[in-house]
Design a protein that fits this description.
Blueprint lengths: L1 H6 L7 H26 L11 H9 L9 E5 L4 H14 L4 E4 L11 E3 L2 E2 L2 H13 L10 H15 L4 E5 L17 E4 L7 H4 L3 H8 L9 E3 L4 H13 L4 E3 L4 E4 L2 E5 L5 E5 L6 H18 L6 H9 L8 E5 L2 E5 L5 H12 L5 E6 L7 H8 L5 E4 L10 H11 L5 E4 L3 H8 L7 E6 L2 H12 L1
Parallel strand pairs: 1-5, 1-6, 2-5, 6-7, 7-8, 13-17, 14-15, 14-17, 15-16
Antiparallel strand pairs: 2-3, 3-4, 9-10, 10-11, 12-13
C-alpha cells in the first residue's frame, strides 16, 4: 500500500524511473514507519499556537528560514491549490522551487517537495532526527506541525532552492510558518468561518489572524473576500505600508480554459486543469503573485505561467477518480466554504441525485457543511475516519436527517470499503457518487485505492 500511495506522486512515465524508484523504495521502506513513530512523540490533543518554541529551535539550527526567499500563502480555502500553481509556474520558469503544504493525504513526505517531487523518506527521517536532537532537555516539546515545518526549512536550504512557497497551517499570525523574514509576497486566498474556537467567531476576527502574515512594506495579494474581512486586510496593509493587490477572478472562456487580465491591461489565456469555478479565483491569485515577482526582477515569462498552470496537479480537491473501475468524485469539503464550492460544482453537472459518502472530524462545523451539501432525494452514507478524532457516524446521521428530512436514505456505517461497494450497487445507478468531508478521509480512500 505504501509503495503505490507514494508512487503516485512521482513521474513514472519512463520505465527506468520506475525501476529506480522501486530500488529506492525498498531501501527506504522502514523509514515510513520510523517517521510515524518519531512524530508520534510530538502529537498533542490540543492546538497551542505560539512562535517561541519554533524560534528557539530554529536559532539552535542556524536559522535556516533566513536563508530563503519565500512566498507565504494563507487563507481558509484555496491556499493549497494556489501553492501548487505557484510552484509549477516557478519550476517552468527554471527556478528550483520548494513547496511546503499541509495536511498530507497519505504520507508525511507529501508535505515537503522540491520541483514538485516529494522528499524521500530517508532524507525526511534524518532531518527530523536533527530537529529532535536540537530540543534541549528543559525545553517545551514542539508540536508535530512545528517539527515538520522546521524540517522543511532545513531541507530547502540543504537542496539550495531558489525560492520556496510556504502554506500556512492554521490562521497566520501565530502559525509556525510565520517565523520567516519578510516574504517576497504574502498571499491571502479566501476567508470564511473555520476553526472558530481558535481563530475567532467572526470573519473580522479570523481575517485579523490571517493578516498576521503581512509584513511591513512587503506586497500582499488578496483574493476575493467578504467585505468585512476585506476591510481588515486593507487596514493592516495600510498600517504596515504594504502594497495591496486586489485580485479579481479570471474569466472562463470555455470548460478548461480561462482568461486573466494582467495589471498592465494585457490578457493571458491559459488552460485550467483543476475542476471547480473557484479555480478561476485561485489561478488568478497565483498569477497576481507571479506578477509581483516579475516586477521584483524574477524572470518568469508568460509561457511559464501558461505551461505551469496547465501542468498543475493537486490531489483530493474536486478530483475525479475510480473505485473498482467505477467513477466517483473525491473532495475534502471540510468546512462550509469548501462544501459550498463542491455543491456549486455538482449543480453544474445536472446530476439526478447524489450518493454521498461522508466522514468528518469531531471538531468541524457539521451543521453548516450538511446544510451546504445535502438536497432532497440525495442518499447519504456516514463513515468514521480511521486513526483520527472522527465524528460519530450515528450522530452525524441524526443531524443530517434533521437538516435535510427529504433525504432518500441515510445510513451510518463502520468502515469505508464496504460503503464504497454499497454506494455503487445497482439501486444507486442514476446517482453521482461523491466521497468528501475530510482530507483525512480522502487520504484513507487513496491508500485503499492504491492497495
Amino acid at each position: 500500500m505504501l509503495f503505490f500511495s507514494f508512487l503516485k506522486f512521482w513521474d513514472v512515465s519512463d520505465f527506468r524511473v520506475v525501476f529506480q524508484f522501486i530500488s529506492l523504495f525498498l531501501n527506504n521502506f522502514t523509514f515510513f514507519v520510523d517517521i510515524d513513530l518519531l512524530l508520534q512523540k510530538f502529537q498533542c490533543s490540543r492546538v497551542h499556537l505560539d512562535l517561541s518554541r519554533v524560534e528557539s529551535l530554529l536559532l539552535g539550527l542556524g536559522n535556516p528560514q533566513n536563508q530563503l526567499p519565500i512566498i507565504h500563502v494563507a487563507g481558509t480555502n484555496g491556499k493549497g491549490s494556489v501553492c501548487a500553481y505557484l510552484s509549477s509556474i516557478l519550476r517552468k520558469a527554471g527556478y528550483s522551487t520548494g513547496r511546503y503544504t499541509s495536511p498530507h493525504l497519505v504520507n508525511w513526505v507529501e508535505r515537503i517537495s522540491v520541483n514538485d517531487q516529494p522528499i524521500f523518506p530517508n532524507e525526511l527521517y534524518k532531518i527530523l532526527q536533527k530537529v529532535e536532537n536540537a530540543i534541549a532537555p528543559n525545553q517545551d516539546l514542539p508540536t508535530q506541525f512545528e517539527v515538520i515545518t522546521i524540517a522543511a526549512w532545513l531541507y530547502f536550504v540543504y537542496r539550495q532552492v531558489d525560492i520556496a512557497v510556504f502554506e500556512v497551517g492554521l490562521g497566520g499570525r501565530l502559525d509556525a510558518t510565520n517565523v520567516c523574514p519578510p516574504p517576497l509576497v504574502s498571499v491571502i486566498t479566501s476567508i470564511s468561518r473555520e476553526h472558530c474556537q481558535i481563530l475567532g467567531n467572526t470573519l473580522a476576527e479570523i481575517a485579523a489572524e490571517k493578516a498576521g502574515i503581512i509584513k511591513k512594506g512587503r506586497p500582499v495579494v488578496m483574493g476575493v473576500l467578504p467585505l468585512n474581512a476585506q476591510q481588515v486586510i486593507r487596514s493592516q496593509a495600510s498600517k504596515l505600508k504594504s502594497p495591496l493587490i486586489i485580485t479579481k477572478s479570471s474569466r472562463q472562456l470555455k470548460p478548461g480554459w480561462a482568461k486573466y487580465k494582467c495589471s498592465s491591461g494585457k490578457y493571458i489565456k491559459y488552460p485550467l486543469p483543476l475542476s471547480g469555478q473557484f479555480q478561476l479565483t485561485n489561478s488568478a491569485v497565483a498569477i497576481a503573485a507571479i506578477e509581483v515577482l516579475q516586477k521584483q526582477g524574477w524572470n518568469i515569462p508568460e509561457s511559464a505561467i501558461i505551461n505551469g498552470i496547465a501542468q498543475t496537479q493537486w490531489l483530493g480537491r474536486i478530483q475525479w477518480t475510480t473505485w473498482k473501475r467505477q467513477k466517483l468524485l473525491i473532495d475534502g469539503a471540510h468546512n462550509p466554504g469548501s462544501a459550498k464550492a463542491l455543491r456549486d460544482y455538482i449543480d453544474s453537472l445536472s446530476a439526478t441525485y447524489v450518493v454521498w459518502i461522508i466522514g468528518m472530524l469531531s471538531n468541524k462545523d457539521h451543521f453548516n457543511i450538511f446544510r451546504e451539501l445535502l438536497r432532497t432525494q440525495d442518499r447519504l452514507y456516514l463513515v468514521p475516519i480511521p486513526e483520527h478524532n472522527s465524528a460519530n457516524p450515528r450522530e452525524l446521521a441524526q443531524l443530517a436527517t434533521t437538516i435535510c428530512p427529504g433525504l432518500e436514505s441515510c445510513y451510518p456505517h463502520t468502515d469505508l470499503p464496504s460503503v464504497l461497494d454499497i454506494a455503487f450497487n445497482p439501486s444507486n445507478k442514476d446517482g453521482l457518487v461523491i466521497l468528501c468531508g475530510s482530507l483525512y478521509l480522502v487520504g484513507y480512500f487513496l491508500s485503499l485505492q492504491s492497495s
